[in-house]
Amino acid sequence: MALINIKKANIYQLNDNLVLKEVDFRVDEGEFIYIIGRVGSGKTSLLKTLYFELDIDEAEEAVVLDHQLIGLKRKHVPALRRQMGIIFQDFQLLSDRNVYENLIFVLKSTGWKKRSEMDKRIFDVLSDVGMTDKAKAYPHELSGGEQQRIAIARAILNKPKIIIADEPTGNLDPETAESIIALLRQISQTGTAVILTTHNIPLLDKYPGIVYRCADNSMQEVTNDFNQFMVEEELDDIETDNEEENDEESF
Questions:
Q1: Residue 234's pLDDT is what?
Q2: Is the pLDDT of residue 48 over 50?
Q3: Confidence at residue 244, expressed as pLDDT on a 0 to 100 scale
Q4: Dihedral angle sign, alpha carbons of residues 142, 143, 146, 148
């Protein structure tokens, strides 16, 4: 079943700058999808259209969770977002509340009423991410990896159909990053689709999924060829760095 079906869509940034042309992107239940590409290639803008922060006005089709995005009324956005979990690179936990309070705040704001049911759900998600012993800890008392695990727990509270993660391992050391990808992969195997942007290419081999690449204002599936593209981009980056160093030395 298609959770997301986008055909021939143009993706714009907030300043009306066109970043991706004629995007074709389909996501089915339980799929694990990577989006790779350089900074500024349109990855984050695409994600923002999926969780309704940026509008799509030009597309042959743009359907997310059975809702047509073109002309979507803002009053429908909160209900749609409740079917999603969103994870950010910088965690975005509420610093003045402990882990339990962060999670119960989300449940209350999404319509949960019974304290016993909320407590059980919080215990369940903390168990899922291996953090039951941190319920009373404040964000500043947690490591980066622990904060990201809590962010994942928050994202799965309402049993979302889709998780969208923008560089979820960007601020983490390699070992912790791997544990986060493994956790998201495990979540996808329960039927929740996971879409994440990343620069951590070695993990794509270890935790396989469908791979899309944003480059030159387009997005293409490169599942079988992503290593080749990333080597080319790394060489280009090295050449650019060398050119900048040579320019500095010439002064």
A1: 52
A2: yes
A3: 44
A4: positive
Sole residue written with tokens 């981009």: 233
Question: SS3 sequence, the chain?
Answer: CEEEEEEEEEEECCCCCEEEEEEEEEEECCCEEEEECCCCCCHHHHHHHHCCCCCCCCCCEEEECCEECCCCCHHHHHHHHCCEEEECCCCCCCCCCCHHHHHHHHHHHCCCCCHHHHHHHHHHHHHHCCCHHHCCCCHHHCCHHHHHHHHHHHHCCCCCCEEEEECCCCCCCHHHHHHHHHHHHHHHCCCCEEEEECCCCHHHHHCCCEEEEEECCEEEECCCCHHHHHHHHHHHHHHHHHHHHHHHHCC
pLDDT tens, position by position, 219-248: 999 998 876 655 555 545 544 444 444 444
Contact at 8 Å (CB) between 198 and 230?
no
What is the reported pLDDT for 235? 47
Residue with token string 């999404």: 110
Region 154-166: mean pLDDT is 95
Tokens of 30: 């339980």
